[in-house]
Amino acid sequence: MTFDAHRLSFGNIAEHYDRARPTYPVEAVMWAVGNDAKRVLDLGSGTGKLTRVALGLGLDVIAVEPDPGMRAQFDAATPGHTALAGSAEEIPLPDGGVDAVIVGQAYHWFTPERALPEIARVLKPGGVFAPMWNMRSTEESWIKRFDEIVDGQNQRSSDSDDADFGPLFTPVEERTFHHSIIYTAQRLRDHAASRSPYLVASPEKQAEILAQVDELTAGFADEFELPYNTLVQRAFKR
């Protein structure tokens, strides 16, 4: 299965994706953009999970997303806002027009050698680039088991000492923000079914994954917490 097939596998289940995936903590977005940012690009915006947090902070947000299905769901779920067609490698914005570029759970789908110069191009001098990842905390055994079931989803490790956005940016700073999302057994099932490895798997493999999730949650309370660590990396345009 090709890289593009994986990164563009979400559009057909965009509404499901928007319902199943976690949001981002406000504190993480505040730290990502800094105190002075006003105009922000959410690059690879998906269905708008991160955009809506940034809008809630009073920021002027431009969203860019390559998948038409995800853009349609973005527009439906984010009244008064429309996601632009584009990609990290071809951003449909003029030079130096934004104070910050934020990326939620999408940087691993970028082609860095093409994307990083484009990101630097649209940033103002001294502007900030900040990708972030929601990572499930695996302190509890059932969450470790969930990760095993959905093997191949490439959950990002917090071991990122070698993070480097290249010569156009300052050295990377990072912080981790803790939060929890309330899940039900159905929502956890939906979450598993929103991952790209599930979406590109055979029907037999998909059924196996969901059966294992159902077995895992048998006997759980109606609602339960799933703790997350949101890792934010940021660097400034030189």
Count of discrete structural domains: 1
Fraction in beta strands: 15-25%
Point out poorly predicted stretches. Answer: 153-159
What is the radius of gyration computed over CA atoms, rounded to a whole number of angstroms? 18 Å
Number of strands: 7
Roughly what is the average pLDDT, rounded to an integer? Answer: 90
Distance between the termini: 37 Å
Helix content: 25-40%
Global shape: globular
Continuous helix count: 10
CATH topology call: Rossmann fold
Secondary-structure element string: HHHEHEHEEHEHEHHHE
Looking at the overall shape, the CATH architecture is: 3-Layer(aba) Sandwich
Sheet with the most strands? 7 strands, mixed
CATH class: Alpha Beta
Spatial sequence of strands, sheet with the most strands:
3-2-1-4-5-7-6
Give the CATH superfamily.
Vaccinia Virus protein VP39
Structural class: alpha/beta
